[in-house]
Amino acid sequence: MKNYYIGITFLILSCNDATQQTVTDTTAALSTEITSIPTPQLTLEQANNLALLPLYCVDQEYPNKMGHVTASPKDQKRPTAQHPVFYGCFDWHSAVHGHWSAVTLLKQFPNLDKASELLGKLTSNITAANVAVEIEYLESDHNTTFERTYGWAWLLKLQQELDTWDTTYGRRMAADLKPLSDLIVERYIEYLPKLQYAIRVGEHSNTAFAMTLAWDYAVHKNEVALKSAIGAKAMEFYRNDEDCPISWEPSGYDFLSPCLEEVDIMRRVMPAEDFHMWLARFLPEMEQGILDIEIGKVSDRTDGKLVHIDGLNLSRAWVLYGLAAQYKRYEPLVEIADAHLSHTLPNLVADDYEGGHWLGSFAIYALQQAGDFEKNI
C-alpha cells in the first residue's frame, strides 16, 4: 500500500504556492486577518492522484472493521461474502464513499489515467446480485440499524452520483443500487420521527451531517416523504439553538464540526430570511466574515482517531464554501475555507492507510464545493 501513497505526493501541485501564502502559524486563530489565497480547484493532475485512493481501496478486503452483530456462528463470514459490494476500504461506510469518490472523479475527468481500471472495479462490485446480498444483510434481525445514519447518508450520495452519470454503465449501476437506496430511504422515514434528541458530536453519528446528504438526495429524487421527515426533524432539533460554542471545537477525534454541520442543514431547510436571522443568533459573527476557529492540528497520522482532524479541516471547508455559494453575503468566510483546505490537502500524502482509506473522499467533496462556489461568484 505504501507505494501508491507516495505517488500522491504530486497532489494539489497547483495549490502549493497558495499554501505557502497562508498564515505562517496555522495554529493562530482564523479570526485574525488571513493573507488572500486562491480557492483550490480540482484539476486533472489532482484527480489522477486522488483516484489512486479508491483505486487501491474499494477492493482491499483487509484490514477490515466489520462492525456488525453476530447472532450465531454462521454469521461469521469474510467481508467479501458479508458485503460483496462494500467490503473494501477498512469499513462499510468508507467503502461506500470510496465508490462515490471513484464515480465522481470518472464523471468529471473521463480521461483519468486509471479510468478503465477504476471503472472495472466499480462495475464488478455494483451488480444486482451483490446488492441483493447487501439488502439481505440489512434485513437480518440483528442488523437493521447497521451504519445508521452515517453509512446510510453516503449510500444515498453515491446513488445520486450514479443517477446523474449519463453513460450506459452509470445507468446500469444506478439501477442495480436503487433497491438498496430505497431501503435506506424507508429506514430514514421510519427512524427520524422516533429520534427524540439531536446527536451533536463531531463523528459518525452526527445527526445534522447525515440529514444534509439525505436531504440533497430527497431533493434530487423528489422523495417528498423523506424531505418532509428531514425538514421537520431539523427544525425541531435546531431552530431554537443560539450561541453555538464553537470555541469548544474540536474535540480530539472530530472529523465534523457540530456547529457548522447545523449551519449546513439549516441553510437547506429554512427560507432565506429565516435562515439569516437564525444564523445571527447561532453564530453571531459569521455575517461579518468572522469565525474564531483554528486550523486543526494532527500529531500522528498513523493513528486512526487522531487523523480525524484532517477530515475536520476538510469538512469545515465544504460547509463554508456551500454557504457562500448559496448566499453571497457570507463570501468573506471563503478565506477561512481556503486556509483550511490549502493547509490540509498536502497532508493526503501521508504514507498510511489510517487516513488514506477515507480522507480522499472528504478532499473531493471539499474541492467539489469549492468549485461550485467559484461558479457562483
Which key phrases capture this entry?
377 residues, mainly alpha, 56% helix, 0% strand, disordered N terminus
Provide a quick synopsis of the model.
With 377 residues, the chain is mainly α. The protein has helices at 2-7, 13-21, 44-50, 52-55, 79-82, 92-108, 115-125, 128-138, 150-163, 168-191, 207-221, 224-238, 258-269, 272-282, 308-326, 334-344, 353-356, 359-376.
Helix-strand sequence: HHHHHHHHHHHHHHHHHH
How many individual helices? 18
Q: Biggest β-sheet: count, sense, barrel? A: none
| Terminal-residue CA separation | 40 Å
Structural class: mainly alpha
Radius of gyration, taken over Cα atoms and rounded to an integer in Å: 20 Å
Report the sheet-strand fraction: under 5%
Helix residue percentage:
55-70%
Number of strands: 0
Global shape: globular
Poorly predicted segments: 1-34
Q: What would you say this structure looks like, in words?
A:
- This protein has helices at 2-7, 13-21, 44-50, 52-55, 79-82, 92-108, 115-125, 128-138, 150-163, 168-191, 207-221, 224-238, 258-269, 272-282, 308-326, 334-344, 353-356, 359-376.
- It is mainly alpha-helical.
- Helix 15 (308-326) runs antiparallel to helix 16 (334-344).
- The radius of gyration is 20 Å and the shape is globular.
- The N and C termini lie far apart (40 Å).
- Mean pLDDT is 90; it is low at 1-34.
- It holds the Pfam family DUF2891.
